[in-house]
């Protein structure tokens, strides 16, 4: 910055002398105005640069013939400023004036013609007219190949520009090829620490970054930095560019803290060396805003975007494409904040600028259409979203090669709309198009491939093809584990998706392992998203409960003598398959009831515990599963308390140390079925039960009491609680439910007029049981110890 100020001071002194010495249209004045314009151009003060270039042109138009080379030079400088300011049509107009003069006055293979063709190619590239850009750049290349030695630096510059175009159209192999030609020339003609080497390494790094090969990208950017640190002062603007690029790689890798650190280094240099309204400072503010947006710090992101906007509104025309980019970024922040009205407003501002200054099929328009589409998708306006995605697709299919990554992104967006509207087959077709492009042009471990594999997996999940879904999510995780740091949020999301699929496959322990990984990653990420942390932790609790229930179920199946209902089932003469189905149903129901209740007890949430259990219990009670009755006794051959339940089996209750509440539950089942039969030998055994079973004995001898409600009325709540402890009662609901269903089926077939009456009695019993459980839960929760800090 200091050198520019000194240069400007000397040129202004020169101008002052010339203005006092020469007439106002003297050619020397034109030269000095041109030099002052060049300084302002380098300082980023484009309006002042343009004013000086226009004064130069005005003098030369008056004093030189219309086809003079110096006029061509003036037109070229004005065109260059308009290009930098984003006024591409004006830039193209002045560069074409330059070309017209040169084609009349210079031989067809003159180097200046090659330079102008190169500059026009640059403008066409900026306008998104890549095929035109390549035509002009090819003309530049032909002249330079014919007129210059094969290792001339100007040839390298043309190769470099062609590489930029191929990078923009997504042909990364060709881009690398041209950059390598550039590098080859520089390595043979320039010293190893020449700035041109640094620039070429920088461009190669950019290609690898776009390809998702972040380690190679960093390697080339570090080579750039190494050269520049040797030959440039520590606050040189080129260092800022390198720091910026390294920061962008860390941003892509999800390492936002490192990215922010490098962007802040960039900003520090630029604020020291550039005027406060320089566009490069605006770019840095913009990048810092992107980081804060990714970190979920939306107010900070907006603050930096507003700084960007303030500079751009002062230093750029009101319809500059860079302004459109900033409006797009501000829109994205509002989208992240679910402020969709503001989101749409900013996206439309971006669109209005782009529709004025860009050709109708410019790729940046497609980007904005995609952004608007995403906003409508977030609002579940899928038809509108699809329309904007198709607008983007129409542009991209016309101007981009068929394997361009941006096309793949839009195919993905369209596929997402079809998936969300339930058209999984069409969604899959678009995802397949996405995948075809990405597998062709991206390296095998590119993060975008991982995203597509994940999306295809989600389609298969929606179609309940869990095994195929799992295979695609495994591909996703494999890539992300290679491409991202171990605490990247995308890894957490993939582990979460894997858990949902494993749940669908009933692989509950594996599901718990994966959701645990997700919780661990998201909790330890650089900037945790706490809403995501909470979501994943809730899902972990849910899956852990299901997994625990599954373990109980398996254990119970292997120890069939644990619960009285299994004794009854074992005495039936049905096939093993029917018996197993019945057992599984009862155990599933019982374990689920107990788990859902205990979850909230353990959490200390008294009200939710009671409400949750009561809701779940009555939902179940309201939809009796008559299929279970058929499984238990398809031919109605057995009474619920059949005498086959004999002394030998009964004794095994005692020998296996079955707790008294289980026996009472069995007795309740008998009572509800209209029987209360015990052989004398069994009564004799009961008389010798230990003292802790005294309340149970009282109930057994009280043969005129026929319900749980009666127990409470006769002996009080305390004894009822002892007979049915809260931690076991929930498990026994399944047994009581089966007994009630059996009673209903045996005594009141569907056509029976007594069915409603008997059903009412059954419901009354279950209501009593539920109320009793709720009361016991309340007591149990109130007795739990309180943790103190």
Automatic annotation (TrEMBL):
Record-given protein name: Kinesin light chain
Pfam annotation, one family: TPR_12
Gene3D superfamilies: Tetratricopeptide repeat domain (1.25.40.10)
Keywords from the UniProt entry: Cytoplasm, Cytoskeleton, Microtubule, Motor protein, Repeat, TPR repeat
Subcellular location: Cytoplasm, Cytoskeleton
GO cellular component entries: kinesin complex; microtubule
Assembly behavior: Oligomeric complex composed of two heavy chains and two light chains.
Annotated family: Belongs to the kinesin light chain family.
TPR-type repeats, residues: 30-63, 72-105, 114-147, 156-189, 198-231, 240-273, 282-315, 324-357, 366-399, 408-441, 450-483
SUPFAM superfamilies: TPR-like (SSF48452)
SMART domains registered for this protein in UniProt: TPR
Function text: Kinesin is a microtubule-associated force-producing protein that play a role in organelle transport.
């Amino acid at each position: 910055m200091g050198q520019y100020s000194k240069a400007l001071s000397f040129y202004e002194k020169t101008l002052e002398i010339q203005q006092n010495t020469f007439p106002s249209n003297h050619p020397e004045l034109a030269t000095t105005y041109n030099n002052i314009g060049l300084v302002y151009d380098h300082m980023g003060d484009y309006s002042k640069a343009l004013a000086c270039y226009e004064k130069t042109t005005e003098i030369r138009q008056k004093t030189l013939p219309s086809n003079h080379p110096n006029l061509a030079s003036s037109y070229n400088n004005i065109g260059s400023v308009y290009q930098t300011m984003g006024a591409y049509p004006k830039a193209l107009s002045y560069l074409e004036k330059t070309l017209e003069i040169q084609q009349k006055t210079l031989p067809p293979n003159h180097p200046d013609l090659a330079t102008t063709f190169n500059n026009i190619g640059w403008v066409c590239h900026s306008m998104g007219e890549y095929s035109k850009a390549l035509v002009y750049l090819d003309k530049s290349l032909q002249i330079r190949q014919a007129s210059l030695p094969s290792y001339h630096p100007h040839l390298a510059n043309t190769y470099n520009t062609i590489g930029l175009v191929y990078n923009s159209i997504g042909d990364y192999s060709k881009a690398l090829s041209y950059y390598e030609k550039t590098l080859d020339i520089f390595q043979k003609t320039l010293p190893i620490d020449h700035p041109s080497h640094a620039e070429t390494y920088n461009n190669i790094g950019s290609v690898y970054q776009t390809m998702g090969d972040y380690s190679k990208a960093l390697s080339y950017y570090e080579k750039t930095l190494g050269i520049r640190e040797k030959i440039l002062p520590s606050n040189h603007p080129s260092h800022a560019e390198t720091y910026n690029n390294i920061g962008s790689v860390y941003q892509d890798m999800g390492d936002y803290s490192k990215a922010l650190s490098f962007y802040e280094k960039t900003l520090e240099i630029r604020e020291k060396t550039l005027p406060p309204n320089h566009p490069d400072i605006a770019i840095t503010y913009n990048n810092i805003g992107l980081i804060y947006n990714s970190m979920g710090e939306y107010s900070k992101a907006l603050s930096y975007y507003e700084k960007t906007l303030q500079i751009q509104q002062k230093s750029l025309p009101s319809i500059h494409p860079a302004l459109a980019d900033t409006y797009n970024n501000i829109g994205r922040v509002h989208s992240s904040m679910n402020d969709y009205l503001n989101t749409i407003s900013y996206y439309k501002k971006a669109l209005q600028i782009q529709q004025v200054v860009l050709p109708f099929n410019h790729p940046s328009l497609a980007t904005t259409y995609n952004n608007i589409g995403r906003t409508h998708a977030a609002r579940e306006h899928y038809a509108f979203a699809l329309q904007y995605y198709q607008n983007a697709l129409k542009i991209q299919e016309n101007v981009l090669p068929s394997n361009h990554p941006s096309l793949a992104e839009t195919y993905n967006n369209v596929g997402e709309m079809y998936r969300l509207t339930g058209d999984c087959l069409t969604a899959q077709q678009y995802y397949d198009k996405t995948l075809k492009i990405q597998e062709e042009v991206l390296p095998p471990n590119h993060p975008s491939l991982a995203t597509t594999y994940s999306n295809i997996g989600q389609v298969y999940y929606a179609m309940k093809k869990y095994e195929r879904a799992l295979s695609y999510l495994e591909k996703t995780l494999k890539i992300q584990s290679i491409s991202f740091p171990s605490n990247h949020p995308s890894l957490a999301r993939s582990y979460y998706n894997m858990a949902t699929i494993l749940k669908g496959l009933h692989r509950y322990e594996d599901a718990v392992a994966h959701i645990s990984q997700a919780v661990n990653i998201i909790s330890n990420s650089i900037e945790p998203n706490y809403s995501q942390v909470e979501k994943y932790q809730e899902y972990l609790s849910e899956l852990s409960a299901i997994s625990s229930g599954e373990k109980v179920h398996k254990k119970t199946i292997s120890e069939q003598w644990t619960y009285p209902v299994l004794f009854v089932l074992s005495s039936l003469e049905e096939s093993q398959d029917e018996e197993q189905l019945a057992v599984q149903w009862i155990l599933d129901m019982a374990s689920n009831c107990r788990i859902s209740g205990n979850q909230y007890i353990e959490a200390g949430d008294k009200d939710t515990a009671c409400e949750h259990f009561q809701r779940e219990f009555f939902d179940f009670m309201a939809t009796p599963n008559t299929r279970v009755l058929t499984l238990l006794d398809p031919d109605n051959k057995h009474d619920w308390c059949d005498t086959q339940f004999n002394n030998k089996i009964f004794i095994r209750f005692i020998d296996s140390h079955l707790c008294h509440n289980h026996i009472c539950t069995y007795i309740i089942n008998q009572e509800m079925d209209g029987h209360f039969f015990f052989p004398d030998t069994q009564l004799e055994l009961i008389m010798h039960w230990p003292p802790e079973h005294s309340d149970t004995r009282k109930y057994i001898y009280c043969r005129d009491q026929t319900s749980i409600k009666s127990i409470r009325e006769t002996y009080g709540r305390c004894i009822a609680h002892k007979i049915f402890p809260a931690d076991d009662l929930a498990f026994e609901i399944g047994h009581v439910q089966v007994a009630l269903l059996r009673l209903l089926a045996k005594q009141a077939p569907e056509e029976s007029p007594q069915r409603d009456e008997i059903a009412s009695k059954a419901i009354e019993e279950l209501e009593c049981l539920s109320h009793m459980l709720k009361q016991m839960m309340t007591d149990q929760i109130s007795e739990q110890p309180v943790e103190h800090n």
